[in-house]
User: Fold this.
Amino acid sequence: MSFAKLFTITALSIFLWTCGDSDPKKNNFSIATDAEKNTIELGKTLKLSINNPTNLEITSVSYQLNGEKISENFKVNSNLGEQTITAKVTYEDTSEEVSTKIIVLNNESPKIYSYKIINEYPHDITSYTQGLEFHNGELFESTGQYGESKLRKVNYKTGEVLQNISLTNQFFAEGLTVLNDKLYQLTWRENTGFIYDVKTLEKTGTFKYGKSKEGWGLCNDGSKLYKSDGTDKIWTLDANNYTEQNFIQVYTNNGKIPSLNELEWIDGKIYANIYQRNGVAIINPKNGAVEGVIDFSPLKELVTQHPQLDVLNGIAYNPQTNTIFVTGKDWDKLFEVEVFLQQ
Assistant:
């Protein structure tokens, strides 16, 4: 089945929890919704009510969605994914707070995009590509594997490595991005990001992750950093102190999209490689909606086939050419492509 079809027709497993007190027997109330399996599309109206099995005399109920006040009938315009609804129930001169989870899906299926190959360039067949980024016409690449991880500046037209920084054996390099003349490079499970001077590639600092699971992909919008961690989440980082401020959950109209990997910011959207899928999701950074998908799987057949050949990973936008460049792990080609909406 193609990458695009997996996005548009595969319903993904959704797990729901009812939370509040760790012992549900201690709660007098629970929240009920009119949504099947507590799952609702963006823009739909959700009706809330309180289950009161012991018929206590309730004097008032107030609801919140992720800390924001809502009414018992409200139009769902939140971020996508798992969201928390809480209710404060006042009764008999006391009160009790209960909560439940809902799942918010996108209300539209992703649009299908296609591509045209404009150019093919040589790429180091031994590079386990994890991150790819253009800055002032120069291509930077982060490659992974323990004992083989590197940061490189490359002449993309010839494949020549212009500058090479090897990481110590304890680090597995991941995604990278450039913001304010600083180059940021993630590592996988080491909870460490590196900061370099983009002009010299001299290391100038490090930063630690917060609640994000691991380091996978990285991009920026000109002021903030966006980080994937191998789940369905994309975290927003403050570019001044590198703290994780919040996250979006990436969902289609069917469910969540896990294994988000290499990221690139293009025209106000986040383009994300999906690990083990030779394609890219186009994501709305405001709410996590997958607005489009690009099936790049045919590209893998155009590179040299060898035992170490791995999946598509590495996407970079070159504003000087207004084109997108993609490659993969241990691919011997870098493809310059033009993306367009499929008719």
